[in-house]
Amino acid sequence: MPHPSSSPSSPRQPLRLARVLLPFGLLLLVSLLVLHGRPPGARSGADPAALFLSLSPGANASIAADLRALTAGPHLAGTPGAAGVTAHVHARFRVAGLRTLTREYAPLLSYRAHASLALLAADRSLLARLSTDEPADPDRRVVRPYHAYSPSGAAVAEAVFVNLCREEDLAALDRLGVSLRGRIAVTVRGCGYRGGVVARAAGKGAVAVLIAGHADGGVERGAVLLGGPGDPLTPGWAAADGAERLGFDHEAVRRRFPTIPSMPVSADTAAAIVRSLGGLALPRAGRPSARSPYAASRVATG
């Protein structure tokens, strides 16, 4: 399972340094280019698409070049890719005659280290190894799927399909006599913040959560940190060098981290698990059914 770069079990691990430009930098860069290339007399209420197409060839080429540079590769915070994007925006602002500056911050960041997934028989013999990658990215050019701030961990347990993992889905399982305790919850993305999904499953006793993307989309990455955005070690103030930081054992920090590991997976991977439970396909709005053996196969995550 992916894990934060520092975790409660390793408080002395150094934090990653993130070089950050002003938050509105990228948006401002594109806005300046659009305004600079706007034809004389263009109305402020004009259709945005028509306005963009009406720009001069030079302005369109400049915007296209910047967008290409900013989206050419991954730029996860704290990585060389992010530093390259920062340098590009900084240089473009300077060319535009703007006074620019950068500031360095050291928030707690989270990266994928290792992830694996497999289907096991009742005797724990291997049935199949399942993919944890993005189906549309066979060459692994983009950031591999993971849940930021998910705790490290491994689980070997029976799987239970919980639909969207809403309160009503969990109540339906209760009525069917299907327990999540000690099992791995398999859910489909689509109902609120993913951190809340993991918390609800944990509250029912699940030991891990797999969140599937939709069949017409990819694998959704994102954080599962609770309590809103922001560095959990510096809540309410900037994570600047030398700033006060809360310890990992502080109650305000511990309650922001999920208590069980989670992993995003593709619809194909989730469908393979659901088929092992007796389902023919991944339900679009899966209503628990008494005829579905929700705990027929074991899933190993790690």
TrEMBL record:
Question: What InterPro entries has UniProt attached to this entry?
Answer: PA_dom_sf (IPR046450), Peptidase_M28B (IPR039373)
Enumerate the UniProt keywords alphabetically: Glycoprotein
What's the domain of life for this entry?
A: Eukaryota
What's the protein here called?
Answer: Predicted protein
Task: Identify the species of origin.
Answer: Hordeum vulgare subsp. vulgare
Ranked from the top, the taxonomy reads: Eukaryota, Viridiplantae, Streptophyta, Embryophyta, Tracheophyta
